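Obj.: predict assembly geometry.
Materials: sequence records (below).
Method: joint structure prediction, all chains together.
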Amino acid sequence: MRAYYITEMPYPYYPPEVAQQLHSQRVILPNHYCDPKLASELYNRYLDEYEYADELGLDLMLNEHHQTVTCIDSVMPLTAAAIARRTSRAKLLLLGNPIANRDNPVRVAEEMAFLDCVTQGRLICGFVRGVATEYHPANTNPALTRERFEEAHDLIMHAWTTHEPFNWEGKFWHFRYVNPWPRPYQQPYPPIWITGSTPSSVRWIADHQYVYACFLQPYEEQERLHQVYRERCHERGLLEPGPDKFGFLALVYVGDTDEQAREEGRALMWYLQAVQHPGFVNPPGYNSPETSARMYRGESRRGAGKSWEELNEVGIAIWGNPDTVIKKITYLHERCQVGHLMMMMQAGFMPTEHTRKSLKLFAEEVYPAIRELGEPLDAPQEAAPSR
Amino acid sequence: MATPVSGQEERRTVDGVTLQVLQGGQGSPLLVLHDCEVMTEWQPYHAALATHFTVLAPSHPGFGGSQRLETIDSIDDLAYLYLDFIASLGLQSVDILGLGMGGWIAAEMAVRCSHSLRHLVLAGAVGIKISGRTEVDIVETFILNRGQLLEVGWHDAALGAEHMKLPGTPGLPDAELLTLIRNREAAARFTWKPFMHNPVLRRWLHRITVPTLVLWGESDRIVRPDYGRAFQRAIPGAQFQLIPAAGHYPYLEQPAAFVASVTAFLRE
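Observations (raw structure tokens):
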């Protein structure tokens, strides 16, 4: 079991009454409410916390969102570059590059190759379709997101596996010469992770033998989606996937006592309490018609409305004293075959002392007991089968 | 209005796409191209127009009962598709009534191939850019909830609540909700970026050589009447008329006045 620390780099100091009135903390919340000096302090604090997690022996996960107070890490490869030269051990899991929304996939291939070379192969490259709320800021067509994702993916992978200039004339991107320098440090390319929450996307991930990263889903849903991955592998005559193919992202807090974790860890629920603007969470064509219909009927999204205790119960949150957390992670591993745990250990107003205490307890008391779960670490990367 | 004429639903395959076509009436053919937000069903304004014309009202690919095709995903595609649709009916030329997004398609057809048309009527049409880079010409309706859409789209929102089916309409059957959601997805495919317009269309509107009427709801707050006047100025000889007490859907809100204007113009 490998553990990855992540913060989304929130900017919690906005006027909540304005967000309530606008029904949104993103896209339309005016940025005059953002104090760049405060943003500077926050960025440096969050970067310090990443470096601290590296010193403690954890791997690091980064992501990006746009035009939102929930995440001011809007330029993930730059954040990774800032961390890359200040660390020498941790894997940098970039999960992920929103390639359906990026203007130029070749540029993404270049950014990832740069990071992989600078870190001497510590990069794990994630590709994501991007959550629904990214489609207004990026202004890419939400009805074409799957097509754009797949073409961007194909172009990047072609750039990493074709070691000479080639021509690309697709639907969305057109180049006469694709020939990025350098190639990735890890050959033929870094490990690839992909997120998804529907059977169709999980089947696609299985077809490519990438790591499937599941975010904030209850145990049952993880099991169901992992089963989709397994069945697809059987159908296609691919190897039975081990825990190295399954990652899970949870809200994690380790306290000295269960009671302390219950109280201090609650701050992590900040993300789940965000106001959801119905127009931005359900852009046309992004969700399936059936999912969209459920949203129009006002059925709640995952995690929303659940208490900190309920989140712990269903598996979306993992908190407690070190022994409790060891038991919870062992249970997660045994039940869902998870081999990579992404841990959101900072959110909203959680003070840096709490994040650091929780990180330290995890690294010193939890990690040694769960490291050996599952397959040997650093299993060699298999090349994706050609389709 | 004269006695309304009922319509029937047919399927026609053009360019490999099977389209649902609502059809009724008799007389010279009138092709009606619908807007984004509306349910594609036979409405009183169709019935009234059908007392004078043979109304042909296809649902765009991906809308209503029309097939969705990956290879049809731009307004250009729709313009060529409907030009082929006209040809497939064996018609030399037709009158076209384009509503909102349908007006954009009609204008794209007319700049390509005016000789396929006799008259062009654009009502609340989108498709051009008239003001500065930071100015919004067309309100983004995709993010609006039902109440907000009725507020900007209708002169009388209460009347709209009665006459317009939208996601959120009380008692809407599941099947109709799913149709509206698919319509919304199809609309996004065609209009998302650049939003609801073609940056170069305006400079080619001078190619339209058929008599053109630009009709606008006086209270349209999705696309203001000034936008309609800009459309009119860019099309040689075009006329402009306002429909009082109507918003972006004058054919739903004031069907009698709307049909009277369209009929008078087409019979000139």
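Conclusions so far: The radius of gyration of chain A is 20 Å.
To do: check interface contacts against the pulldown list.
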